[in-house]
Amino acid sequence: MYKIIDGKAHSRGLREEIAAEVARFKQSAGRDIGLAVVLIGDDGASKVYVRNKIKGCEEVGIRSYAYYLPADVSQRQAEDVVAELARDPAVNGILVQLPLPPGLDAQKILSLIPVEKDVDGFCESNMGSLCMSRPCLAACTPNGVMKMLEREGINVSGKRAVVVGRSNIVGKPMAMLLLNADATVTVCHSKTTGLKDICLSADILVAAIGRAKFITADMVKEGAIVIDVGMDRDENGRLCGDVDFENVKDKCSYITPVPGGVGPMTITMLLYNTLAAAKRSAEIV
After folding, report:
1. Tag placement on the chain: N or C end, fewer CB within 10 Å?
2. Which residues form the catalytic set?
3. CA of 87: how far to CAs of 84, 161, 265, in Å?
4. Core vs surface per residue 179-213: b (16+ CB within 10 A) or e
5. Neighbouring residues of 142: CB distance < 8 A, sequence distance ≥ 6
């Protein structure tokens, strides 16, 4: 019998813990924790994400600073905003909402975020530290997966993990986090041969490729833990993940649904990282 990993419940519980930690920090350090969010352009989905991030900050007691820039902003103007936030001691974390409008060099803009304020965990220094098993701010979505596994009491040490997808945002950091937790990790991608057999070897199967219902029942071994990071639309336009949930679930010991699985943890881990960044800046353990 499978168990659904309830991301909403884990997110609620973790946010309560973060709120308590934020309150203790404010009392100890005598100052607020600040997260700055920069949104460039009018992308509807990005606006929703930013609104949810600001709401999350309010919920746990983190002060948010929102900067809305027009789609036709110049590269220099966008860089100046981020550079100013980098110098602002009231800002512990900086997030530039992606994707950016055409014509802007996202890498140059993101490179202006200091490693200690990179709460998205995307900068080269944080990614490098993750690869070397050093303390860092890890990417929010894969870090959220690890938190859910931890809170479910699932020990990944010694397990065979397969990550389908190699993006810099999810696939690669997911593989590194699992490896750092002593799993044996295989990363699959569009050029992988024998994908089905590799997936069938997985004790933990993480799907992060952005293809609706790509992982089917014949790719999952009995008793596997299946983590669906996808956010797609099916043939009827309904929200679904990369895993064919209805046909896969009965083969699993644990499985995350879409929606309500990994998704709720992403913003929660952003708040978690912002708190961690503030603690480091104040040298509070």
Report:
1. C
2. 53, 97, 120
3. 5, 40, 29
4. bbbebbbbbbeeeeeebeebbbebbbbbbbbeebb
5. 170, 173, 174, 177, 229
Global pTM exceeds 0.90: yes
Token pair 């007691």 is found at 61
Establish how many alpha carbons lie within 13 A of residue 176's alpha carbon, considering only the half-sphere containing its beta carbon: 26
Q: What is the pLDDT of residues 29-71, one digit of tens each?
A: 999 999 999 999 999 989 999 999 999 999 999 999 999 999 9
For tokens 């040490």, name the residue. Answer: 157
- What does R_g of the chain's alpha carbons equal in angstroms? 19
Q: 83 φ, ψ to 5°?
A: -65, -40
Q: In what order do the strands lie in the sheet with 63-69?
A: 63-69, 34-40, 93-96
